[in-house]
Amino acid sequence: MSDREGKNSLRRGIKTAAGILLLLAVWEAAAKTGIWSAYVLPPPVKVIKALAGMADSGVLFKHIGVSFKRVAEGFFIAFAMAMAGGIVVSQKPSIEEYYGGFLEFMRNVPPISLIALLILWFGIGETSKIIIIVLASFFPMYLNIRKGFVSGSRNLLEVGMVFGLSSWQSFCRIILPSAVPDILVGMRIGLGYSWRAIIGAEMIAAASGLGYLILDAQQMSRSDKVIAGILTIGTVGILCDKLFSLVIGRVADIWEAGGRE
After folding, report:
1. Distance from the first to the final alpha carbon of the chain
2. Is the dihedral of CA 176, 182, 184, 188 positive or negative?
3. Cβ of 55: how many Cβ atoms within 10 Å?
4. How far apart are CA 135 and CA 146, in angstroms?
5. 232 close to 217: Cβ distance less than 8 angstroms
6. Phi, psi (5° rounding) for residue 159?
7. 177 closest CA partner among 205, 203, 153
8. How much of the chain, in percent, has pLDDT values that exceed 90?
9. Is the pLDDT confidence value at 46 over 90?
10. In sequence order, what are the residues at sequence separation of 6 or more whose Cβ sits closer than 8 angstroms to the Cβ of residue 246?
11. Helices (H) and strands (E) in the chain, counts
């Protein structure tokens, strides 16, 4: 990292910290002035104590682990399906005419709206929650993967044909490498959608997870724990996104280095 990039990162970090401190100050002022009661809006200190208490007892990490496991399972299932669909479209574009309309319909149906039906079909176990994650994360990944596969350079494909490459060899050596950036972007977007979907599912039909933690706290009239759960979700989501961004950056660097060689 150059000195200029380091200074820019430090500057962004300072601005982010200043924004967080300002938000905490406004929150504390609103709680102290009594604009809202402590029942509705507890002060930051109370929320931090609730968060620390759940972390100390291990309850918080237990719920994080449960939600993370569900997200990981649903995300990778959706990714496998999206890759398979993208490969099919790249090799046999006409096949998409048979299922394209159904996919377009399902893309516009919120996964949360299917919870009642999924519970009737699969019960309140893990299956229904995983399906919701798959439905939420599949479409952004599929659309990006499909875009990457079908927008490959026609000139390179023609060169491959001249050198006698089969359709599968052209896919592996030309189409897939050029689609890597779109695949990674789709995965990053799909990961965010996975977290959004699982929280909603856990708030309706679950006995563990961060969504359940929030709903249980609401039923117990513990608004401090509700806010603590929301903060936890946001923090975990940011950490997952940052980690994935680092992976994307690393893959891109390796890819560029391989291209130069």
Report:
1. 22
2. negative
3. 14
4. 17
5. no
6. -65, -40
7. 153
8. 7
9. no
10. none
11. 11, 0
| Residue carrying the six token digits 């030309």 | 174
Tokens coding 207:
């006995």
CB 183 within 8 A of CB 144: yes
- The two tokens of residue 78 are 């959706």
Separation of alpha carbons 183 and 199, rounded Å:
25
The residue with tokens 């300002």 is 22
- Cα angle value 168/172/176 (rounded, 5°): 125
Specify the pTM: 0.80
Which residue type occupies 64? I
pLDDT at 229 over 80: yes
Burial class (CB in 10 A: 0-12, 13-18, 19+), 62: middle
Are 196 and 111 spatial neighbours (Cβ–Cβ below 8 Å)?
no
Report which secondary-structure segment, H or E, holds 172: none
Predicted confidence at residue 166, as pLDDT, reads 67
The token duo for 85 is 């669909």
Residue, of 162 and 46, whose pLDDT is higher: 46
> Quick one: angle between helices 176-204 and 115-122, nearest 10?
80
